Amino acid sequence: MTNIELKALRRLFFLYVADAVTYIGKCSKRAWQYRESGSRKIPDDVINIMNKLKEERTELLYYYRLITYSVIIKLAIWFIQG
Questions:
Q1: Using one digit for the tens of pLDDT, what is the confidence trace for 29-63?
Q2: Which residues cross the membrane (predicted)?
């Protein structure tokens, strides 16, 4: 994972640096900022957590789409049958 990906994922999850430090990085805010700037290596555990969060988000979006499509189809059938 690159520093740019780390920052993009943090923003995608609507996390402030303070949140990322508390729940993911277990480091100082400055250390996290160094990782996002590319000055420090991103630890493997942080990479694993961020990738897991990304996978969970993808799964949730997939199920949300399925539910949404199902509701749309049911509404369309109901509307057509009148």
A1: 999 999 999 999 999 999 999 999 999 999 999 99
A2: 60-80
Q: How far apart are CA 33 and CA 27, in angstroms?
A: 10
**Ramachandran quadrant class, 38 (left: phi over 0; alpha: psi -120 to 50; beta: rest):** left
- Token pair of 81 as six digits: 């049958």
Q: What are the backbone angles phi and psi of residue 38, rounded to the nearest 5°?
A: 95, 5
Q: Model-level pTM greater than 0.85? A: no
Domain range list for the chain: 3-81
Question: Please, is 69 exposed, middle or buried when counting C-beta atoms within 10 Å of its C-beta (0-12, 13-18, 19+)?
Answer: exposed
CB 42 within 8 A of CB 1: yes
In the numeric block, which tokens belong to residue 44?
A: 């493997």
